[in-house]
Amino acid sequence: MPAFALDPEQTDWCAQLRDLAAERLRPLADKGEPGRVNRALIAELGRLGLLDRLFTSGALDLCLMRESLARVCTEAETALALQGLGAHPVQAHGTPAVRERWLPAVRRGEAVAAFALSEPGAGSDAAALALRAEGDAADGWRLTGEKSWISNAPEADLYTVFARTAPGAGARGVTAFAVPADRPGLTGAPLDMLSPHPIGTLALDGVPVTAQDVLGEPGGGFRVAMGTLNLFRPSVGAFAVGMAQAALDATLAHTAQRPAFGGVLKDLQSVAHQVAEMALRTEAARLMVYAAAAAYDAGDPEVPRRAAMAKLLATETAQYVVDAAVQLHGARALRRGHLLEHLYREVRAPRIYEGASEVQRTLIAKELYAKSYAGTNGEQR
């Protein structure tokens, strides 16, 4: 399938997802408490089969789900994505016992998963992790340190935790562990953030883990993290595209009926050109997201670069589109509870998490130079 076109079945499925989001997910999201895990919403995602599909489909399907849900209910989109982000390392790298213990419950929406990578001193620089894993595979490890900015913390049931098992080894000294929330020594606290989804801190004081809890191989945690992020980065772009499209839809409706200077707003050339620019950037971002997702599904070796490009373009575009939409709506868009007020708070975070925009630019440049200088003697081609 060409990356730039969806077939009729995919288009219909996206429309069905938007209808489900409006009819069954939006009401549950409205009943939730901002900044807290909405277990009723997650359970409904499980009943609708969306969490199961999250783990059985490819990157393009994941993008279509996230974009479609984000256009109608960002809370549902985020709940779905966080389940995938937290549990994907378990699916891809967990032992049979850990997979059997957790994946069915996560897919049903009965267990909440979280991806615990960032620390107070190590956000986008995953190789700088300081949380210590003391011990060895034979006798087990004790995890000691802090995690911060962790989505679904401290309310998750299962955490994918990245810890340093080899001091001074950089990225090669990190190991990933599946850590149940009820392990002794694991505590946490919520953070009051600009965006309304649940984020918190974790404190690990000698938390016990064993070889059965290792995801992948000891010392292979960086690969686990990057493999997960390469899958989810294009879909962060899809989330952003969904928000941009929601802002554009609202702007089209508003400018077509808002009286201004003897006509309506859309009759003003400056407004029409602004709306055209919003639509242009949104569609360009959408196409790049779809292309990156299709490349992941095809096993393209350039996935890291394409995923970074998709996330960068889409998140920066969404910030622009939502801001422009607020400007065209005027003061009404600043009222608490307005769609654009909500989107304005939601749209800022994706430019930071899963690798800030600056990190994406660094990654893109690194991949470009590596390809340019590839050769038997390192000479530029």
TrEMBL record:
Gene3D superfamilies: Acyl-CoA dehydrogenase/oxidase, N-terminal domain, Butyryl-CoA Dehydrogenase, subunit A, domain 2, Butyryl-CoA Dehydrogenase, subunit A, domain 3. Residues 8-110 form the Acyl-CoA dehydrogenase/oxidase N-terminal domain. Residues 219-368 form the Acyl-CoA dehydrogenase/oxidase C-terminal domain. Residues 114-192 form the Acyl-CoA oxidase/dehydrogenase middle domain. InterPro entries: Acyl-CoA_DH_CS, Acyl-CoA_Oxase/DH_mid-dom, Acyl-CoA_Oxase/DH_mid-dom_sf, AcylCo_DH-like_C, AcylCo_DH/oxidase_C, AcylCoA_DH/ox_N, AcylCoA_DH/ox_N_sf, AcylCoA_DH/oxidase_NM_dom_sf. Its cofactor is FAD. PROSITE patterns: ACYL_COA_DH_1. It comes from the Bacteria. Keywords: FAD, Flavoprotein, Oxidoreductase. One of its GO terms (molecular function) is acyl-CoA dehydrogenase activity. The keyword Oxidoreductase applies. Belongs to the acyl-CoA dehydrogenase family. This is Acyl-CoA dehydrogenase. It comes from Streptomyces fructofermentans. The lineage of its organism: Bacteria, Bacillati, Actinomycetota, Actinomycetes, Kitasatosporales.
